[in-house]
Every structure is written in C-alpha cells, then in structure tokens.
Amino acid sequence: MSVPPISPVAAALRAEILAAAEAELARSAGALAEPASDAATPQQPPPAMATLDLARAAAAVRQGGLAPLFADLAKAAAQPGLPAPVRAGIAQVLALRTPLAGPLTAEDVKRAVAQSGLFLEAGLARGAEPPPDLKAALLRLGAALTAARGGETGAEPPAKVPPPPVRGAALSAQPAASSTLPADAEAPAIVQHLQAQVEQAVARQTLHQLASLPDGQGAAWMFELPLVTPQGTALAQFEVQRDGHAAGGELVPGWRLRFCVDIEPLGPVQVHLGLAGDRAAVTLWAERPQALEALRREAPALARALPAEVMLHAGAPHPAAPPPGRFLDRTS
After folding, report:
1. How many domains does the chain have?
2. What does the pLDDT look like over 235-253, one tens digit per residue?
C-alpha cells in the first residue's frame, strides 16, 4: 500500500499545525487563567517555558491511547458509506504500522522511528520533505473527519487512557485492543467516533514531542511505534537518551535506550539497553513467569549477538518519579 508524498501538502499542513497550536494555546490560556490578586506576583517563568507548559497541560487532558484507535480504524476500513477522503486517510494511517510477521531489521526500525511523528514539525521547519509520517497522517485524517461533519468539532475526553509520556518516568506499552465500533454503526456515527479518537491520538503525539525537548540534562527522544501483531495493533513506547560514562578518567559518550511492549503470549516486557564505547548491557523485566522463562532461554543468543551482558528480572523496573505538579493522573 503506497502513501502519497507529503510535499504537495507541506505548506497547508504547516499552516494547519500552527493554527491548531495557536487555537489550543488560546483555549488553554483561558481555561488556566486566574483572577488577578493584590498579593505580590510571583516570579513568572520565561515566555517560551510558559507557552510549553500551556501546550502540555492542554494536551494532557485530551490525550488518549492509539491502540483503540487502530482497532477501530481497521474495522472502519471495511465499512461501506464512508467518504472517500476519510477512507483514504484511514488507509494512510494503517500503512504506517510496522509488521512483526518476521524478524525486524535495523532498516525496519530506522524507518519506523523516522515516521513515528516525532520529527514532523522539525522537518517542515527545515523545508525538507519528511518521509511518510504518523502525525501528518493523523492530521490529514482528522481534517477529513472534520470536513465530513461539516466542520463540527468538540471531542469528549477519553474515559481511560495510558499515562502521559514524561521523560524518565515509567514507560507504558499498549496491548492490542478490541474495536468498540458497533457492528451496525452507520457512516455518520463512525466518523464522529473516529474524530474524537484521532484528536486524542494527536494530543498524545504532541506530549511525546514536548517530552523530547531539551531540558538541560542532555538530548532525549520519546515516541511510540505501532506494531502489527496477530491480535491487532499494539503500541511500543521508547525513550532514547544521549549519555556519558566515566571510563579511565575520560568521559565516554554513550546511549541509553528504554522500551516496553505488551504482546501475547509474553505480556508486558521492558528492556533497558546501555551502550558506551564498545561495551553494552541489557536488562529485561517480564511480569509473567512463562515470559521470564522464555527470555532466559534466548538470553545467551542475545548476549552473543550484541555482544553484551544480559540480566533478567521478574516484575517491572522502578524508575525515578517524575517532577511533581506537571500532570493530573487520570488513569485509575
């Protein structure tokens, strides 16, 4: 399945992104504004930081997981009566998943990361032609859905969502979900349902981009990759961070990679990979005893292939708590 190049719509997409961001910030400023007080005004953060905080707060209350969206898109693709632009938009989003039918190559992973949606605006700002991109495809689909509803918007917030992405916090994989579209749903109801989910998915993409901004502690990138499994589309969450380790009195540049997946029959699995010079170390956590045993059987082959030291643990890692006061926990 081919995906049209982004270059013919780059200018329109850039304008759409900027307009959406400005509207979101305006709504956030109105919602978060407080009456003036006679008390001494506390020191305000820099304007750029305040703007990012507003964008983060607005996206946090609207974000939703992508696994339910992909399940509903796969079902909606077979439904008759959808407008042609909506059907084309659905096909573009579904084409950006990474299949797990065979072994993944380095080129497969590189392509999946490039089209994850993390780098869309950076590519547009450079005037470059980015590769097919998940966020761009979601924005196109969202525009088609809004047009199909005559410009009507106003999606309800999701009832249950994965935790918002925060650098250094616990990662959250999304297992494949079942579609929530009724079997007899007609085109208008499908369009309205998908519009809400797409808006929530774009908000989550924005949160990953905000979590990837420089914070003075080094470069880091957070993103999710949709993976096609026999049960449906699962989402793996990643955090890649530039690092440095002292070795012999010198700073050796390196990398730290964390990711988590939740795919049957293994269930939730988290991986931490550290690379520094010619040394590597891998630590894996599995929550299910049978998954831990399966990973133990494969650990020697993994250690030889990298090569690296491989350690395995039951349960899940416990990363440092994120800074307080940034998000409201709506996941329980």
Report:
1. 1
2. 999 999 987 654 555 555 6
